[in-house]
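User: Hey, my collaborator sent me this sequence without any context and asked if I could get a structure. I don't really work with proteins. Can you help?
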Amino acid sequence: MKQRARVDKNHKEIVECLRKLGCCVLSLHAVGKGCPDLLICYQMQLYLVEVKDTGGKLRESQKAFMRSWGSPVFVVRSKEECVSLLNQLRRQAP
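Assistant: No problem. I've predicted the 3D structure and written it out in structure-token form, which is a compact way to encode the shape of the chain:
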């Protein structure tokens, strides 16, 4: 029997915040196997985002996913970190 995917307590809050800030958000938390919690589209670019509660640490499967995909996975824990992430992505935009 498959175990139900865990969702961090702030998952819904983070999704709502990202949407209010102009992102399209697809929740991937049920995929498991280290896959990040969210796929977001911001300014026509796709990004992977891992949601963690305050003090939450990445599991080994999540670290392995990040290494194998060769694409950055951004970790956010709060609304403030969402704003900071989007500011960072805006500065890096081509």
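In plain terms: The helical segments are 11-20, 60-69, 79-92. You can pass these tokens on to your collaborator as they are.
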